[in-house]
Design goal:
Layout lengths: L1 E3 L7 E3 L7 E7 L2 E6 L3 E7 L6 E9 L1 E7 L2 E6 L3 E7 L6 E17 L2 E15 L6 E17 L2 E6 L6 E4 L1
Antiparallel strand pairs: 1-2, 3-4, 4-5, 5-6, 7-8, 8-9, 9-10, 10-11, 11-12, 12-13, 13-14
Length: about 170
């Protein structure tokens, strides 16, 4: 299911177009876009978070995260996989290659870069456009799960039990 709220207090129920393990949602270009954890090629779009339309990603994967920035939706698969997908509108998707088969878990955008982190490794990847990716190295092999950008730095944290975090400008 889905739910939408304008204030985070009151919620309205919505219905996604198929029964999936939905893994992520992002907003951009006037649409919410959700990706299924799968393995599946299921995605969905909604103008309001309540009414959803079925969409199809370029391949059946365990999609783990999605974001919108720089005019693109970018989704990554956790597989392990070397697959990402981009879409300017959340409807038409193009498959992209990440630098190596990893369990890509989280994606963020800031400072002109998309950054993804992988679980159970020391691998990250960066891209200025979501299309061409460059492999990067984190300070240690961890179950990296979340990443955010703010105040000029990326911060990633590991799932636990762990005390690991890493930063990068």
């Amino acid at each position: 299911g889905a739910a939408a709220s304008s204030d985070g207090v009151s919620w309205t129920a919505g219905t996604l177009p198929s029964s999936q393990s939905w893994a992520g949602v992002a907003y951009g270009n006037g649409l919410y876009v959700a990706v299924a954890g799968g393995p599946s090629a299921a995605a969905a779009t909604s103008p309001d978070g309540i009414t959803w339309t079925s969409r199809t990603l370029p391949s059946s994967q365990q999609w783990s995260a999605i974001t919108y920035a720089a005019g693109q939706f970018v989704a990554v698969a956790s597989g392990p996989s070397a697959v990402a997908a981009t879409s300017p509108d959340g409807i038409t998707w193009t498959s992209r290659a990440l630098p190596g088969s990893q369990q890509w878990m989280a994606i963020a955008y800031g400072g002109g870069q998309f950054v993804v982190v992988a679980s159970s490794s020391s691998v990250a990847a960066t891209s200025p456009d979501g299309i061409s990716w460059t492999s990067r190295v984190l300070p240690s092999s961890q179950p990296w799960r979340g990443i955010a950008y703010g105040a000029g730095i990326f911060v990633t944290v590991a799932a636990g039990p762990s005390t690991a975090a890493a930063t990068s400008p």
